Amino acid sequence: MAETKPSVSAAVKSPSSAQPKKKGNSISWLAPLSCIILGYIIWRFVLGAPSNFTTPDPNGGFWPQHKGPKAGLSKMYEGGIIVPILIGCFLTVVTFCIERLLTIAKAAGSGSITEFVRNVQFHLANKDVDKALAACDKQKGSVGNVMKAGLKKYKEMITNTELVTEQKVLNIQKEVEEATALELPMLEKNLVFLSTIASVATLLGLLGTVLGMIKSFSALGDEGGGDAARELSKGISEALFNTALGIGTSAVAIIMYNVFTTRIDGITYGIDESGFTLTQSFAANYK
Q: At CB < 8 A and 24+ separation, what contacts does 121-130 make?
């Protein structure tokens, strides 16, 4: 009877060494809420402190109607209730920028990704898988994690006598794909907040400006005269603080989003190169 070999579909069902990372993402809802609350506190109690105005509102409350700001920053208070929301948006951008900087720096690992991949290629060319695994432990990044998962399967396939070379390569490729699927979400997590705020902050700034100008023109229509024209100019100036805050917040969010996506693209390229290195090396050395 002719000897039968396992099918390719059966070959790729071996257990995976890549394990899902159980990490919560409470910062995704806690940070924006906390930042908006902090934004209101800054607007109400720092910018809107009674000592910053010549005619403070003694009744206080949620939105005191202070008049006569003494300093430039105090004028921002009179921009209206949209100002604390914009401050909260800016603080949210800062929070997620710090969080992404730390996460992506950790994912990048130590040293150059290009040099790491070349080092692994050198060890695999010499058929020294253990040294390649040691290099992955030293790299400590996403590329190293994916490469390590693939190398463990690589080492397992070397001693496997039941599968043909093509099936072994498919097993290694599947292991790399599973490890990659676990790493990429961590890199891209929370970037949606930066991209969303980049669009929304400008619109919020324009909304605050429009509301301020409506209020100013209404006062002009009610009072009339030179004093009303002067108050109109002051009102427009105060309303434009909303636009300035919105555009500034949006600019920071766009710049940092592009910085992070560029760095993620570099890590992703390293991960892709890792998978290619493992499959090509095995196909060449263990035919």
A: 121/277, 121/281, 124/154, 124/277, 124/278, 124/281, 124/285, 125/281, 125/285, 127/285, 129/154, 129/155, 129/158
Which alpha helices (H) appear in 78-164, and where do they start and end? 82-108, 113-125, 129-139, 142-158
Give domain status of residue 36, yes or no.
yes
CA distance 139 to 54: 60
- The two tokens of residue 79 are 């921009």
Higher pLDDT, 54 or 2: 54
Asked whether residue 18 is domain-assigned, the answer is: no
Q: Is residue 4 part of a domain?
A: no
Q: Percentage of the chain surpassing pLDDT 70?
A: 87
Flag whether pLDDT at 5 surpasses 50.
Answer: no
> In the prediction, which pLDDT does 60 show?
76
Decide if 8 is inside a domain.
Answer: no
Q: For residues 180 and 270, what is the distance between their CA atoms, to the nearest angstrom? A: 11
**The total number of structural domains that make up the chain:** 1
Residue-number span of the structural domain to which 279 is assigned: 28-53+70-285
**Cβ atoms of residues 20 and 149 within 8 Å:** no
Q: What is the pTM of this model?
A: 0.84
pLDDT confidence band for 23 (50 / 70 / 90): low
Record the tokens describing residue 100, joined without a space. Answer: 């992404």
Hey, what amino acid is at 206?
A: L
